[in-house]
Amino acid sequence: xxxLWNLLLQGMVNSLLFLYDVLAHNFVLSIAVFTVLVRLxxxxxxxxxxxxxxxxxxxxxxxxxxxxKYAKDKxxxxxxxxxxxxxxxxxxxxxxLPMLLQLPIMFAFYQxxxxxxxxxxxxxxxxxxxxxxGLSHLVPLxxxxxxxxxxxxxxxxxxxxxxxxxxxxxxxxxxxxxTDPQAASMTQSMNITMPxxxxxxxxxxxxxxxVYFVVSNLIGVVIQYFITGWGGLLPQKDExxxxxxx
Amino acid sequence: xxxxxxxxxxxxxxxxxxxxxxxxxxxxxxxxxxGLAVAEDVxxxxxxxKVHALDAETGNPKWEFAGEEKKGPFYATPAxxxxxxxxxxxxHNLYTLDAVTGNQRWSFTTKKPIIAGPAxxxxxxYVASADFKVYAxxxxxxxxxxxxxxxxxxxxxxxxxxxxxxxxxxxHKMYCLDAQSGQLIWEFKAGGAIAATPTLAGGxxxxxxxxxxxxxxxxxxxxxxxxxxxxxxxxxxPLVVNDTxxxxxxxxxxxxxxxxxxxxxxxxxxxxxxxxxPAFADGxxxxxSEDKNLxxxxxxxxxxxxxxxxxxxxxxxxxxxxxxxxxxxxxxxxxxxxxSNGNQRWAFPRTEQ
Lengths: 246, 353
Known about the structure:
The structure holds 2 protein chains of 2 kinds.
Chain A: H1 2-22, H2 27-41, H3 43-58, H4 60-69, H5 74-88, H6 97-116, H7 121-130, E1 144-145, E2 148-149, H8 158-174, H9 181-204, H10 207-228, H11 235-245
Antiparallel strand pairs in A: 1-2
Chain B: H1 2-22, E1 35-39, E2 42-47, E3 50-55, E4 61-66, E5 79-81, E6 84-88, E7 93-98, E8 104-109, E9 119-121, E10 124-128, E11 133-138, E12 144-149, E13 159-161, E14 164-168, E15 173-178, E16 184-189, E17 199-201, E18 204-208, E19 213-218, E20 224-229, E21 239-241, E22 244-248, E23 253-258, E24 264-269, E25 279-281, E26 284-288, E27 293-298, E28 304-309, E29 319-321, E30 324-328, E31 334-338, E32 344-348
Antiparallel strand pairs in B: 1-2, 2-3, 3-4, 5-6, 6-7, 7-8, 9-10, 10-11, 11-12, 13-14, 14-15, 15-16, 17-18, 18-19, 19-20, 21-22, 22-23, 23-24, 25-26, 26-27, 27-28, 29-30, 30-31, 31-32
């Protein structure tokens, strides 16, 4: 298993180095292009979850009806909901599976960027063991881009702010509006804390990773737009739709 | 429905955040690459965020000095001269300490971490930094004399000889500077980054690079005389004894090369990368490996005489003095071994970080 992981990591590191070589030695570009490639490769894993979210969003009026109809009989309520999912061909638990499947790829990509941006001797040793001889001449990667040294945190906090904003937009779009107060409260809390946490993380990590987060989020926003439109980003419209459905 | 899906998603996202914060390597503070020097019967160790002075005979601590711990550890080998210990730190500072007491005399701050060891010659201290620059300072006071800017980080300790400063940079170039003025005399571009300290012998300058090559240049002109292709990056400082160049590589081997032609005489395979420059005494070559072992080899044939296993990997070059070989492993532990048979004389406990 560890060997498989190292193989995946090594492949990603060398892919990043190769892109860096062909993209005018611009690591921001190579991160962006590689992020696009990774998102495209993992699209078959992420699309079902996003589509499922859309269907669930469309089912909200019917779910709400069941919830109210069987408010006093939780068992019956649950049974009816499951019947509805079965009827519509949805497995709610499956919504998480694509996320689980893409996690290793996301972690490997994250580690590959860290490895490629080696800025300490020990990180460089690790890179030296992963980089193929034909790409070793590229090391160390040109880590400067605009005001950034990609191997170090962004001193201006511009990138962490962009991470917060893009994470919030993507999450807001992907989250269906909820009529259940408890779920709505949890979702609202997540929509605020998650972007802030990602922003906080990027404040202390290499700014190259912040570039990855921003690009990845922007791609996520585009994909989400084609599936659900602006989704939860436009709450008033969605609420009207929900009311009409009732 | 929403109760079913939101919970697991929250858990998943929180696990992602936890992994980003704790795993994945990026957020972890850099680990030290201990530096070891021996002078006047004292072992100077820069490991973790501290500098230690140990009695070379017993290993008993004499004093210790703490850098700015939060900003990171020491990577650089200390230099000792005229009762002063000079050591660069990841916290961007070059510290000058009293060799007897460990008290700080002065410090000099650069803009980036100091990975390279300093060099001292003729009352001048040469400090190379990851801020791309080489600084020449008055050794007694730290007053600046000149500075020279390269095209990338400098991780290699400068070499000062014959009134010239030779320094390799991660911009792939080896620079030869006038030691008095800092003026560029010549530069040579290798096929990869240079993190290894060069060695000067018989008018030739020897060094390794990340293109997996060992280079020999004419020290006066910078013209290439020969190159040797190893199987991995060459980070180790070459050692020249008589007519042989000994150098380690990340291909797990140490090579013995003819100093004049670069022809391979022999090679010895360890089980992991050889990052440390070898040491020599009384016909034995001491080679430290990432595989945790110190190997004592017959310098003429490459045959193993004995080996000593430390508890962790060894990146730090061994130092031989007065029949004792001193090594330091990555856990900051110093071992004093009998140079002839590898028997342990003492060990200094794990350094607190």
